[in-house]
């Protein structure tokens, strides 16, 4: 996948199973969000995405790092809009408001964390088979992060496929079956639960290097 002459993703070959949670990690600019947008059909790319559910985008719940909301649309109307997009009926939206969001207020006026929680609620209520959560824990309060972690575990128990990117490694270690390392548009490593700690140490060493020493702190 390329932007102009710059190739962002190179020879990505991944397979995901139902009932498993996958982490995608990498530095900013490694291509994580671009990969997710390709999987969701939001970007043009060379290659194939094969899903047992048919066109993946029709059974996929995508949580972007910064969800977009139309102006003058309340939280409740936003959820209803996403349900209508999948021809799904829903009753008692207020009763399924797990994050206690002010659904009667305009979503565009929500805080960053509230927007993320609203977008997550909407894709969950769509009853998707696959979920891509791009930085779901960023900008969200601690209590909600605990709820999101338990939601991911519940999705796994329901045999859903969940793919997460996060810079908070501890949340990945608590939920993921596998973690894939994306570097400069290429998947360079796949690790399983027993090696998560080793990967975290390697990433810290690579990212930090001697940068702190440059501050010459005494």
Question: What would you note in describing this structure?
Answer:
The protein is α/β, with parallel strands linked by helices and 218 residues long. Helix content is 32%, strand content 17%. The protein contains six helices and eight strands. It has helices at residues 32-39, 75-85, 112-125, 142-157, 169-175, 196-208; strands at 2-3, 6-7, 21-25, 60-63, 130-134, 161-165, 178-183, 186-192. A six-stranded mixed β-sheet has the order 4-5-6-3-7-8, with helices on both faces. Strands 1-2 form a two-stranded antiparallel sheet. Strand 5, helix 4 (142-157) and strand 6 (161-165) form a beta-alpha-beta unit. Helix 2 (75-85) runs parallel beside helix 3 (112-125). The radius of gyration is 18 Å and the shape is globular. The relative contact order is 0.19. The mean pLDDT is 88.
